[in-house]
UniProtKB/TrEMBL annotation:
Keywords linked to the UniProt accession: Coiled coil, Lyase, NADP
Gene symbol of the encoding locus: gmd
Domain NAD(P)-binding: start-end pairs: 6-332
Biological source species: Blautia acetigignens
Protein name: GDP-mannose 4,6-dehydratase
Its EC number(s): 4.2.1.47
Catalytic activity: GDP-alpha-D-mannose = GDP-4-dehydro-alpha-D-rhamnose + H2O
Chain's role: Catalyzes the conversion of GDP-D-mannose to GDP-4-dehydro-6-deoxy-D-mannose.
PANTHER family referenced in this protein's UniProt entry, alphabetically: GDP-MANNOSE 4,6 DEHYDRATASE, GDP-MANNOSE 4,6-DEHYDRATASE
Family affiliation: Belongs to the NAD(P)-dependent epimerase/dehydratase family. GDP-mannose 4,6-dehydratase subfamily.
Length: 352
């Protein structure tokens, strides 16, 4: 019998990679999409074109849609990836972030319970290294205390605990993957890595003058999203439900990522100044390419994330270094340089 999976957030970075993985594994894949005024399926259009996924209209803020969809699909596995996932945006839309990122998780768990599927359906909850927030221990592991440091992280903390609660109270197979930052060529354009690789490509093609960033000292443990979705699946294949940290075990600054992304485009950055006055210059031409804009600072910023993937490595047999940090920067930089070249060709044709 073909297993059925339901992915919330299937149109996002992780959802699109996970859908591909599950299709390859022979699953019947369903996804929840929310209404948008223009198409939001760009990351999965290749799957839709071949009728490889079935989409259902719904929203994490709407219990009735979730109950209806889960009842139709009767999934063996639910991957709850849908979220207002931008940390800085959560300071501007805190109530909505709480509704979707906290109560949305409860709505999924309750829907499964109401439908009497608690013994059939396994649930993966997309938890996050942001739970560690104002860091109390490095590196962070499953036993490190949480100190959420944004409305997003506070909401995700509720999601974490309610998932654990339903596991303990109702014996449900419901687990948390505490995933550290993972990036890719499909990453949303307003997360820092993608913002940098897009800008580096465009600057190299003469389409953009410079890049403005916020906290460049911030440290992140960055992995490749395509590798991380494998863990989501692995977590639901275990004999017993349990929560896991998923990370590479390495950390780098935003500044370092910036340097490497420009270098992948043949530009060496020379830094001068400090704090708000810090600037990055093209070491060859002396042109200013990177500067700080306080607009991108957060009211409270998480600045030291570094995961310990020992448990995932030993229990799941997962390789945290499948794609190295250097390879990740290269994949993203090369992809976005190609995009910039295409943009330059279009501009050139328009000017003829
Ligand atoms: P994205 O922002 O790329 O995708 C989020 C998805 O959620 C999109 O499909 C989006 O739909 C959907 N969504 C948002 N709000 C709703 C809603 N109200 N109802 C239904 N769907 C909704 O995130 P990622 O793929 O990067 O992350 C996936 C999950 O993992 C998120 O929960 C995130 O918080 C968490 N996470 C991510 C990490 C990372 O580094 N990427 C690390 C740790 C956790 P639409 O396309 O219409 O916007
Ligand atoms: P994060 O990712 O907040 O870790 O959340 P993001 O890429 O937005 O920020 C990482 C760090 O970079 C600093 N920064 C900037 N960030 C953005 N977006 N734009 C800038 O210009 C900029 N300059 C510096 C930030 O201050 C921060 O310290 C991501 C999301 O995917 C969450 O959903 C997920 O839970 C966590 O990763 C793990």
């Amino acid at each position: 019998m073909m297993k059925k999976a339901l992915i919330t957030g299937i149109t996002g970075q992780d959802g699109s990679f996970l859908a591909e993985l599950l299709i390859d594994k022979g699953y019947e894949v369903h996804g929840i999409v929310r209404r948008a005024s223009i198409s939001n399926t760009g990351r999965i259009d290749h799957l839709l074109a071949e009728h490889k996924v079935t989409l259902h209209d719904g929203d994490l803020s709407d219990s009735s849609s979730l109950i209806r969809i889960i009842n139709i699909v009767q999934p063996d596995e639910i991957y709850n990836l849908a979220a207002q996932s931008h940390v800085q945006v959560s300071f501007d839309v805190p109530e909505y972030s709480g509704d979707v990122d906290a109560l949305g998780v409860l709505r999924i768990l309750e829907a499964v319970r109401i439908l009497g599927l608690e013994k059939k359906t396994r649930i993966y909850q997309a938890s996050t290294s942001e739970l560690y927030g104002k860091v109390e221990e490095v590196p962070q592991r499953e036993t490190t205390p949480f100190h959420p440091y944004s409305p997003y992280a506070v909401a995700k903390q509720y999601g974490f605990w309610i998932t654990k609660e339903y596991r303990e109270a109702y014996g449900m197979f419901a687990v948390n993957g505490i995933l550290f930052n993972h990036e890719s060529e499909r990453r949303g354009e307003n997360f820092v890595t993608r913002k940098i690789t897009l800008a580096a490509g465009r600057i190299a093609e003469g389409l953009q003058d410079h890049l403005e960033l916020g906290n460049m000292d911030s440290l992140r443990d960055w992995g490749y999203a395509k590798d991380y979705v494998e863990c989501m699946w692995l977590l639901l294949q275990q004999e017993k439900p349990d929560d896991f940290v998923i990370a590479t075990g390495e950390q780098h600054t935003v500044r370092d990522f910036t340097e490497k992304a420009f270098l992948a485009n043949g530009i060496r950055i020379r830094w001068e100044g400090a704090g708000l006055e810090e600037k990055g210059y093209d070491a060859q031409t002396g042109k200013m390419l990177v500067c700080v804009n306080p607009q991108w600072f957060r009211p409270t910023d998480v600045d030291n994330l570094w995961g310990d993937p020992t448990k995932a490595r030993t229990v799941l047999g997962w390789n945290p270094q499948k794609t190295s940090y250097e390879e990740l920067v290269k994949i993203m930089a090369e992809h976005d340089r190609e995009l910039a070249k295409q943009e330059a060709r279009v501009k050139c044709a328009q000017n003829k």
